[in-house]
Amino acid sequence: MADKAEEKGGIVETIKTVVYALLIAGAFRTLLFQPFWIPSGSMKDTLLVGDFLFVNKMAYGYSQYSCPFAMCKFIDGRWMGSEPERGDVAVFRHPVNGADFIKRLVGLPGDQVQMRDSVLYINGEEAPQEDAGTFVETYEPQGSIGNTPQCQNPGVALGNDCVKTRKIETLPGGVSHSILDVRTSRLDNTPVFTVPEGHYFFMGDNRDNSTDSRVPQTSMGVGFVPFENLIGRADRVMFSSAGKSMLYFWTWRGDRFFEKIE
């Protein structure tokens, strides 16, 4: 009888340990940091496909979207909210389809944002760009999805260099970051967008390969993003793998481990 009681007690303790671990992990994910894998190339070369990072949820406070599956319905608006800053790389919940997106914040409430001939203008002022050479990557399937990158040099064969023009853009306030250019696209020239109060305007750094606030809000387009939809700020790449799985150690990008996101 004693053996059975000890066995039962051991099972109960194991279950309690698992439950406590899940609760702690859930609290960590909800209140502090949310893990995020970069699935696409819209933020190259700031973020690469296969980068892994933790999103800092404390940066902007908490809304219903701070909980997994937007379960924090009891939060009205935003608690302990801190305004994001222009130039932040942030994760937000798509206003229509509910997916998590990561882009760079370029437009604050009340700003007028426009693209003219591939150049960003904010409140009528040009965000200056400086030439920064080229960004070169291998033309091959990337990440778990296996999409191939877009290239400025046409007709690239698998395994060859895929090239994009790279520039350094400086936003009002002084934040500088790299942007990539592939081609002339419809998003290189836009109407003037006036950002409503309580909303933000986001763009990808890989300008010709990003669905962002330049596209009106639909199940695909992003449009203006409400403050409550912001989940957190991306501060640092923790791990990076160019392969389909993080287990493929030969595809790890050791030079990107713990790299600051700028």
Automatic annotation (TrEMBL):
<dbReference type="InterPro" id="IPR019758">
    <property type="entry name" value="Pept_S26A_signal_pept_1_CS"/>
</dbReference>
<dbReference type="InterPro" id="IPR019533">
    <property type="entry name" value="Peptidase_S26"/>
</dbReference>
<dbReference type="GO" id="GO:0006465">
    <property type="term" value="P:signal peptide processing"/>
</dbReference>
<feature type="active site">
    <location>
        <position position="103"/>
    </location>
</feature>
<dbReference type="Pfam" id="PF10502">
    <property type="entry name" value="Peptidase_S26"/>
</dbReference>
<keyword id="KW-0645">Protease</keyword>
<dbReference type="InterPro" id="IPR000223">
    <property type="entry name" value="Pept_S26A_signal_pept_1"/>
</dbReference>
<dbReference type="GO" id="GO:0009003">
    <property type="term" value="F:signal peptidase activity"/>
</dbReference>
<dbReference type="GO" id="GO:0016020">
    <property type="term" value="C:membrane"/>
</dbReference>
<protein>
    <recommendedName>
        <fullName>Signal peptidase I</fullName>
        <ecNumber>3.4.21.89</ecNumber>
    </recommendedName>
</protein>
<comment type="similarity">
    <text>Belongs to the peptidase S26 family.</text>
</comment>
<feature type="active site">
    <location>
        <position position="42"/>
    </location>
</feature>
<feature type="domain" description="Peptidase S26">
    <location>
        <begin position="12"/>
        <end position="237"/>
    </location>
</feature>
<dbReference type="InterPro" id="IPR036286">
    <property type="entry name" value="LexA/Signal_pep-like_sf"/>
</dbReference>
<dbReference type="GO" id="GO:0004252">
    <property type="term" value="F:serine-type endopeptidase activity"/>
</dbReference>
<dbReference type="InterPro" id="IPR019757">
    <property type="entry name" value="Pept_S26A_signal_pept_1_Lys-AS"/>
</dbReference>
<keyword id="KW-0378">Hydrolase</keyword>
